[in-house]
Amino acid sequence: MKIIVSGSLGNIGKPLTAKLVNAGHEVIVISSNADxxxxxxxxxxxxxxxxxxxxxxxxxxxxxxDALFAMTPPNLGSQNVIANTTEAGRAFAKAISETNINRVxxxxxxxxxxxxxxxxxxxLYNIEKLYNALETSITFLRAGYFYTNFYNDVPxxxxxxxxxxxxxxxxxxxxxxxxxxxxxxxxxxxxxSSGKNIRYIISDVRTPQDIAKALGTAIxxxxxxxxxxxxxxxxQGMTQAGLPEEIAQLYxxxxxxxxxxxIAEDFLKSNLAADGKTKLEDFAKxxxxxx
Length: 291
What we know:
By secondary structure, the chain is of the alpha/beta class. The chain folds into two domains: 2-144 and 178-200, NAD(P)-binding Rossmann-like Domain (Rossmann fold, 3-Layer(aba) Sandwich); 204-290, no CATH class. The chain has twelve helices and twelve strands. The chain has helices at residues 13-22, 37-42, 55-62, 81-99, 122-132, 154-160, 178-189, 208-218, 231-240, 245-260, 262-269, 280-290, and strands at residues 2-5, 26-31, 46-49, 67-70, 103-109, 137-143, 145-146, 162-165, 173-176, 196-201, 204-206, 225-228. It has a seven-stranded parallel sheet with strand order 3-2-1-4-5-6-10, with helices on both faces. A three-stranded mixed sheet has the order 7-9-11. Strands 8-12 form a two-stranded parallel ribbon. It is globular. The chain starts with a strand and ends with a helix. Residues 2-238 form the NmrA-like domain. Pfam families: NmrA (PF05368). It comes from Flavobacterium johnsoniae (Cytophaga johnsonae).
C-alpha cells in the first residue's frame, strides 16, 4: 500500500513510519521541516515537505495514496490555537475529498466528543465533525493522556519535590504511550473498513496518586506526591514557566475537564479495555532513564 503519514518523525510518526516500512509499504512522510528529509529517507520512506494548512500541497501529496494517517499539530502558534488547528483539519478534509483517498486514520483524543470544556481538544472535536461529513472510510483514533507529558514535570520534581495539576490525586486518567498509538495506527491503516469508526487507544487507567508513586519509586524519590493546584495556581505556574497565556489557559481548562470527569467519561462508561502494551510501571522505567 501507499500510505501517507503526517506528524513528521515525532514520538508517533517515527515508530509508525518504521513499522509501515518494515511491513513493505510505500510510505510518504509529511514534514514542515526540510531538515528532516534525510532522516525520513534513512528510514526507507519518502519526504513531502510542506504545511498541513495548505490544502493544495496536501492534495498533491495524497494523490494515488491508499491511506492517510492524519495528525494535526495541536499548537500552530500561540494565538487562536483552536481556530488554527481547525483550519489545518479543514485543509486535510478538502484534500481528502478532492483525492478520494479510501482510508483515513485520524489521531484524535479522549474528550473529543465534547465541543467545549476540554481545552486544546476542542480543535479535535471540530475536526472530527469535518471528517464525519466526508465519504471516506475514517477511524477516529482517540488517544489517552500521553505519558510523555509527564516529562514536563521534571523541573517541578527537581525543584519542589512534588508533581501536580489542577485536578485531584484520585482522578481516573486514561493514559497512553506514543508507541502504542503508532501500533494502533499501523493496524488501522491497513484494515478494510467502511463508514466512520471510533477506536480508543489507551495503555492504562490510573490516578495522579498512582503516577506520582510509580515515577517516584523509579527515580528513588519514594515520598514524591501529587499536589492539587487551584486553576489560578495552575495558570500562573504555566505562564511563569514561559507558556503563552492562551495555551496556558487551554491546558488549565483541560485540567478542569479531567477534574470533572467529563474528558474521560465517554471512554470509562464504555468499559473498553486499556489494550495498549505500555503500562504505567513500564513508562516509569523510561522516565527514570531520562530523569
